[in-house]
Recover the amino acids of this structure.
């Protein structure tokens, strides 16, 4: 039988594996990890799996059920070994202990009312069809936003520095990456959240998991009836307090020789330090007795103040796309879009808002970077959920990556042929902003880069003017991205509230062959 002290080593090995897998998912800028393997990695993430199951009602999306069963058997092993945000907190706690050799944990107060308040709000959020609370509190999604919005730009910057350095020695193993300009407001939230989590983990271990995280609270309730529990053997315990000092959940009470299993994250640190057999991992069918001290609902008012040092790394990405046409006059007529454009495979804006946890995995995986965090495009309740931003990129005609990597079912898998006729929006032409009319010059950038030839150039006096045929438009945004007018575009995509199917032009109508592999737009 495995020694109890070996359980921690096994837990650490599993944690490192999961952390590296998730870090690679969100930091992979070259699509080294095939999208078909992504769902295997994200299968055990609780909230995305639950939402995907509600969308598909399929056992292939039932990873959350496995987590529930695992919790009933062994306690909160998900929190200690599978949840990437939980593992990140352990790394922060480890750094804290290394820097402060004499740092010890102790029994902490349970903020019962506060943690159940967050859980109730999360449940109400799901039942009401608005995921704003889930998006803000889900540990997996917050981990994804932190790595996509904060860490990935750093990785890209390091890559570009290495490209420059290696090129000096005629080594070309790497290639430069363009760093898109970040929205300051949308970057601020993951930065503030990381600051909060860092401070709590650095000072108090797993306090976030046992106070704020709704998944941790739910699994904590289930762990009360788990078959295997961490328990103190009163006859063998010598009251050395070593187990209490290493318990980052603050759930071991050495005075009463008890463990609050609802807060225990099964890190198994206590097994490694116990000099006797005073602490066991026991098969126990008896209901856990309620600790009277833990039942007191006197929530101490505390302020969680996060000191945030906001810094920005301004590195210009390698710009290979040189525009042939540059407008000399600023466009004057603002563009007002009624609907944002949700990703292909999301079926409708409502379906997307009701299922997306804003984990930003699709944003991190999108090769053209057209997917960006939204601010108020979907309204307040859809804040941070991805939207198609055609100023930063366009939707590749033959790309299916976002529909392949989505863990929550907000973007469903679609076939390539269906994607080529899937109308997520329609292009709208605003004559008053077009340089053909404002500057009396030829352009045609929009028509040149339309993959379905929904946009064509037709004679208009002495010049040729863009003409849009809605029935052929798929809303990919190639025209809007290529349009040279600033600050307002002369052609833009209005999102479809419900995705439709566009007509497909006959081959004989496709006079110009487009090479979709070459750099875009020119």
């Amino acid at each position: 039988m495995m020694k109890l002290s070996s359980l921690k080593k096994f837990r650490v090995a599993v944690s490192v594996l999961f952390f590296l897998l998730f870090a690679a998912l969100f930091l992979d800028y070259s699509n080294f990890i095939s999208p078909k393997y992504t769902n295997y990695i994200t299968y055990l993430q609780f909230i995305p799996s639950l939402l995907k199951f509600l969308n598909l009602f399929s056992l292939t999306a039932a990873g959350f059920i496995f987590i529930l069963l695992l919790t009933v058997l062994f306690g909160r092993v998900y929190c200690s070994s599978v949840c990437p945000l939980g593992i990140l907190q352990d790394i922060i706690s480890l750094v804290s202990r290394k820097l402060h050799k004499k740092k010890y944990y102790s029994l902490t107060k349970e903020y019962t009312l506060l943690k159940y308040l967050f859980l109730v709000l999360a449940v109400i959020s799901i039942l009401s069809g608005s995921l704003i609370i889930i998006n803000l509190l889900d540990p997996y999604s917050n981990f994804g936003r932190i790595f996509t919005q904060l860490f990935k730009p750093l990785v890209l910057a390091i890559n570009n520095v290495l490209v420059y350095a290696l090129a000096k020695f005629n080594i070309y193993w790497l290639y430069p990456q363009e760093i898109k300009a970040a929205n300051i407001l949308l970057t601020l939230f993951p930065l503030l959240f990381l600051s909060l989590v860092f401070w709590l983990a650095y000072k108090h271990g797993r306090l976030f998991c046992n106070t704020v995280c709704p998944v941790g609270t739910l699994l904590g309730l289930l762990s009360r009836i788990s078959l295997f529990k961490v328990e103190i053997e009163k006859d063998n315990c010598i009251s050395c307090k070593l187990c209490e000092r290493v318990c980052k959940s603050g759930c071991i009470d050495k005075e009463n020789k008890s463990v609050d299993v609802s807060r225990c994250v099964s890190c198994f640190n206590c097994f490694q330090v116990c000099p006797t057999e005073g602490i066991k991992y026991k098969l126990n069918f008896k209901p856990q007795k309620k600790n009277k001290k833990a039942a007191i609902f006197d929530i101490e008012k505390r302020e969680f103040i996060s000191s945030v040092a906001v810094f920005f790394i301004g590195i210009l990405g390698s710009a290979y796309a040189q525009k042939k046409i540059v407008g000399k006059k600023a466009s004057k007529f603002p563009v007002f879009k009624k609907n944002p454009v949700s990703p292909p495979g999301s079926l409708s804006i409502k379906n997307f808002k009701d299922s997306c946890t804003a984990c930003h995995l699709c944003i991190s995986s999108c090769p053209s970077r057209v997917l960006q965090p939204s601010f108020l495009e979907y309204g307040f309740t859809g804040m941070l959920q991805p939207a198609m931003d055609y100023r930063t990129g366009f939707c590749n005609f033959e790309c299916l990556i976002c529909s392949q990597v989505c863990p929550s079912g907000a973007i469903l898998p679609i076939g390539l042929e269906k994607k080529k006729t899937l109308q997520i929006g329609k292009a709208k032409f605003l004559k008053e902003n077009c340089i053909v009319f404002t500057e009396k010059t030829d352009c045609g950038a929009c028509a040149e880069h339309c993959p379905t030839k929904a946009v064509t150039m037709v004679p208009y006096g002495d010049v040729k003017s863009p003409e849009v045929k809605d029935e052929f438009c798929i809303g990919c945004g190639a025209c809007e991205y290529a349009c040279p007018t600033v600050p307002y575009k002369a052609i833009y995509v209005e999102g479809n509230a419900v995705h439709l199917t566009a007509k497909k032009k006959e081959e004989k109508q496709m006079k110009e062959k487009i090479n979709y592999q070459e750099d875009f737009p020119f």
